Amino acid sequence: MDAEYIAPALTIFNAEGNIDIRGNKVLYDYLIQNGINGIAVMGSSGEFFSMSMDQRKALAELALTCIAGRVKTLIGAGCMTPRDTIALAKYALDRGANGVLIVGPYYINLDRAAILRYYDSVVDHIDGAVYLYNYPDRTGYDLDSEMTRTLLERHPNIAGYKDTCVAMAHTREILRATTLGGFPDFRVYCGYDDNFAHNVLSGGAGAIGALSNLVPDICARWVKALQNNDLAVAADMQRYINRMMEFYALGVPFMPIMKAALIQKGLTLPPCCLEPLEEPGEEQQERLSRLMAEMFSPSM
Fold first, then answer.
1. So which residues are the catalytic ones?
2. Where are the beta strands (DSSP E) in the chain?
3. Residue 202: CB partners within 8 Å, gap ≥ 6?
4. Are the C-beta atoms of 17 and 51 separated by less than 8 Å?
């Protein structure tokens, strides 16, 4: 059974708000050594929305140099304007990215014609694999199955789709219109970790889920269990991830608390995020420590 787990990597910054070269390398190596299938750089968990264009280009180059083809590497290139999105996508693809992940403009609420116009204007100028990124809670609109199929029919270099929707019914509609509807090579990933197995069993490619930053080994075991049709292990992993989903409630956005969790696990990383995000407070740290003690006990 085909399945992939791609980690939407955190971005590690130093106290001055600059990209921490060593810290990002530590994280990429940790993910790869623990069996993750791919890394997505500058997804939402990578804080791309707070980064300058120069920082985004520097991180793309750092990631591609460090990962060096060891796993599939996608670079988040979505910007507010087609011009900037095209420029960043070309920059990443020219340096060896396997594809670019493109979320549409956010904050403004676009109608269907504007959404299609944005993606048409972008994808027409990108010579490489494009992965559409649907995140209605953040963009304010939905890249639905009808629009996705329309774009796929127009642009053969659209290779896949990340669906960050809680309801798997939405992802199944995307699958019905694309992978199961005449485009068998189209890769549909869910954005919520606990939907991974459901997505794969429905014909999807897997997940681009942020818990893989924290438990890449568990995610890798889950992938292998499905690939080997080992439903007993797959069920164990599902129950573990279901419990770990509580992690997302510890802090919103979750990136500062996830960096704190990695430090608790023993990775030598600075805890810093870009403003307006703040480091976890004392109560959050205590709740995190209790969850970590439960989820990483010897019996687990």
1. 44, 107, 133, 162
2. 4-9, 38-41, 72-76, 99-103, 130-134, 158-163, 187-190, 206-208
3. 168, 171, 172, 175
4. no
Q: What is the pLDDT of residues 47-73, one digit of tens each?
A: 999 999 999 999 999 999 999 999 999
Please give the pLDDT value at position 298.
56
Amino acid at 11: T
Contact 4, 22 (CB under 8 A): no
Domain boundaries, the chain: 4-250
Whether residue 53 contacts residue 88, with contact meaning beta carbons closer than 8 Å, is answered with yes
> For the whole model, what pTM was predicted?
0.96
Task: Identify the DSSP state of 16.
Answer: T
Residue among 2, 20, 4 nearest 12 (CA): 20
Task: Give residue-wise pLDDT tens across range 206-244.
Answer: 999 999 999 999 999 999 999 999 999 999 999 999 999
- pLDDT value of residue 44: 94
Instruction: Strands of 19-110 (E only): list them.
Output: 38-41, 72-76, 99-103
Q: Give the DSSP per-residue string, 148-215.
A: HHHHHHH-TTEEEEEE--S-HHHHHHHHHHTTTTT-TT-EEEESSGGGHHHHHHTT--EEE-GGGGT-
> Does pLDDT of 300 surpass 70?
no
The reply to whether omega before 256 is within 30° of 0 (cis) is no
Q: Provide CATH code, domain 4-250.
A: 3.20.20.70
Neighbour-count burial for 14-25, b at 16+ CB within 10 Å, e otherwise:
eeeeebbeebbb
- Rounded to the nearest integer, the mean pLDDT of the chain is 96
